[in-house]
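Input for the complex:
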Amino acid sequence: MLDEREVPTAIQEIFEKSRGELDRRVGTLEEAVSALLGEGLGEDLRASAERDAHKLAGSLGMFGLPRGSELARSLEQALDQPGGPAPGEAPRLAESVLALRGQLDAQVQRPEPGSEATNPASSSPRAQDGRALLLVSPDPQLSERLSVEALRRNLRPRRAPTCAAARQLAATEAPDAAVLDVSFDDSVNNDEESLELLAELTRLEPPVPVLVLTGSEALVDRVEVARRGGRGFVARTRSADQVIDAVSEQLERSKATQAKVLAVDDDPVASAALAILLGSSGLAVTTLNDPLRFWEVLENQAPDLVVLDLDMPNVDGVDLCRAVRADVRFGQLPVVFLTANTDPDCVTQIFEAGADDYVSKPIVAPELMTRILNRLDRVRLFRDLADKDSLTGVLSRRRSAAAIEDLLAMADRFGQPVSLAQIDLDHFKRMNDELGHATGDDALRRFGELLTETFRGEDVVGRWGGEEFVVASYGMPRDDGVQRVAEMLEKFREVRFTGREGSGMRLTFSAGVAEYPRDGADLHELYRAADDALYRAKTAGRNRVLPADLEAGAETGGLDVMVVEDDETLAGVLIDSLQTRGYRTHWLDDGQEAVAALSGSNPEFSPSLILLDIDLPSLNGLAVLRRLAADDALDRSRVLMLTARAGEAEVVEALELGAFDHIAKPFSVPVLMHRIRRALKR
Amino acid sequence: MSKRILLIDDENDIREVAGISLESVGGWQVSSANSGHLGIEIALAEQPDAILLDVMMPDMDGPTTFARLQDDPGTREIPVILLTAKAQGADRKRFAELGVAGVLTKPFDPMALPGQVAAILAAHDR
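Predicted:
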C-alpha cells in the first residue's frame, strides 16, 4: 500500500500510462468533427465518438483535468442526438475538441534529465501515439468503414475524398501509411491522377508505404502500381478489417528496416532537439543523457550509428569513441561527432579516435541529416555485400558463422540440439569444365535458391567455399537433419543443367550432418564431425547424406540394409532413397535366395535391417520370416515387413513371428524412412 | 482487518485510480473486475463488504449486473454503489430506485472518493 502522500504521483503515473488510450479517444473526436465539417458524419463513427467522449468525460477529471471532463461531456451530449449533431454545430464542436486536445497536451511531461527516452522526437503525444493513415477514396462509406477500423487499431485516419485533398493533408503532416482507392474504371477518369499521387507519396523521405485498393484484377494495372512504388494490392471486396491488417503489416515492415541511431549528449535539451531532428527523417532515435550507461545501452540497442557530442563536460567523447573502436563487435559501427570546435587539432583528434565524420555546432539541420543518412546508406551497402553471397544469395561465411554461434549459445541456454549439415556439390569442377563456367554459376545459383526454399527462415544457410555450403537448424536432431537434406538432394538431382552447346548434365551433392552438442562441443568440433561424415559420403560413392554417428557403423560407411523385394521398380526406389540417406544397401528378389543368404552358421549377410516383401517368388515373406526366426537370424537383424494389402491376419502373424514392424504398400518414402530409423534405434 | 471492496469497471485507468485511492487513502482491501460477469464471480467468492459498480459497460451493464447480484442470495446483502458518468437528474433518480446503496459520479476526485464511499455506506447501515 502507498503512503497517502504518494497517491498523486501514482495517479500521474497511471495518467502517463493511459495517455495513449486518451489520445486515441480524442483522435476519434477529431475525426468525427472533421467528418462533420466535410462530407458528413456516418453512424458508426458517430457511435464510436460518443462512446469515447463518454469515457473521456468520466476519466479526465480524475487525472486533475476537470475542464477536460466538461468539454468531453458537452461533446458527448452533442453526439448523443439522433442522427448526430447538425452541420451548423460543427464549428463550435471543433473548438471544443481543439480545447480538449489542448488540455491533454498541457499535461505533457518533459523527460527527466539523465533518463533515456526513445524518440522524444515525437514527444508531442499526437505523433507518438497512433500513426497517421491517409485514406484516399471518393467513396464516403468505404472511407468511413476504414476510419472506424483504423481508430480501433490506434491509427489516426486522415480522410481525403480527392487526390487534391490528399496532397493537402500530406503536406501538413506526412502520413505513416496510405490507402489509395483506385477504380481503374475507364468511365471514371481519375486513374492517372491517383497513380501520380502514388508516385509522389513513395518518393517522400521517408517513403510512405501505399496500399492500393481496387476492384480491378487486371495484371496491367498491377504492374503499373508496382512500377510507381505501390506496396500492395487489396481487393475492394475485402473487409475493412482485412485492409487495415494489411496496412499494419506494412507499418511493421517499415519499422523493421528503420535505422537505429544512438545519440549521446549529457544535455537533455540538446539531445531532445537532436532526437526531434533525426526522428523527423524516419530514424529510430534513442537519446542517452547519462554517458555512464553508454555501454549498457549500446549493447542493448545495437544501433546502426552513434552520434557523440564532443563537448560533454563530464565525459570525454573521444575516449568513448576509442573504446567503441577497441571492441571488435563495434569496430564497424559508424560514429559521428558533434563539435563546436573545428580547429585542425581538434578535428585530427576526432579522426584519430576512429570517428567517421563530424558535424559542427550549432547544428545545421540539413547538413547533419545528409551526413548521417549518407553514412547509414554506405554501412547498409557494405553490410549487405559482406553478409550475402552475391551469386547464391545465402549468407557469407563470416556472417553465417556468427549466426551459427548465436544458435549454439541459444541451444545451450534452452537445452536444444542444433544440426549442422555440410554440403558439397559432386564433380562440380567437371561441370565447369564440360559445360562452361556460366552453367556452373547457374547451378550454384539454383542450388542457393533450393537451399533457401528448403530451409526455414530461422535456419542459417551459408556458403563456406566454392561449392561448399553449411546449414544449421536450431532444435533439430541429427536424424531429422539427414532426412531434410536427403529430401533436398532428391529434388536437386532432378534438375538438368544445360551448357552452351545444348549438352546437359545433372548434378548431385554429398553431405555430412552433425548434431550439437552430441558430435561436437563448439562450432569448430561440430564442423569437423560434419566434415568427417561428408568425407565418408564422398568415399562411399557421393550423392548421399551421412550422419556423423560414430557408433552406427561409421567405419563401413553406414548401416547395412537388405531389401528383399521382387518388384524391380520399387526395389530401385528403395535402394536409391536408402543410399541417399547414407545406408549401405543389398538387394535380393527371391525368397529362397534370401533365406540362403541371411541364415546359417556363417551367413553371407548380416544386415542391421531387412525390408522384407510379403509376396515373393519361390517362398513368400512369411515363410522367409519363419525360417529366419528359427535360425536366430532375427537376433542379428530387425525385419520390417512390406505388406501389399491390409491383410490383418498376415500382419499379426508377421509380428508374432518376430518382425519388428510392418508398413502397408503403397507408402511414401519419408514415412518409410521414419519407420526405418525407428527400427534401427537401439 | 481492513474491509474489502470490489471494483467493477471496464476501463483500466479508472480501476487503477480508484483502486489506489480506496487502498491508500481509504484503507480498503481492493479487488477488481473488468466485467459484470467476472465481478459477480468475485463477489460470490470473496464476499466483499461493498461493491463499486460502473454503469456503462459493454456486454453487461451496471444495472443488469446489479439485478443479477440482487437475484443471488449469495450476493444480495452486499451494498452496491453505482459509478456513473451520466449524472443527469432523471438518470440519478432511476438508479436510486433500483435499490442501490448510492450513486457516485465520474469523474471522481481520487482524494475524496474514499470519504464519499464511507458516507454512503454509513447512511446505508443506519
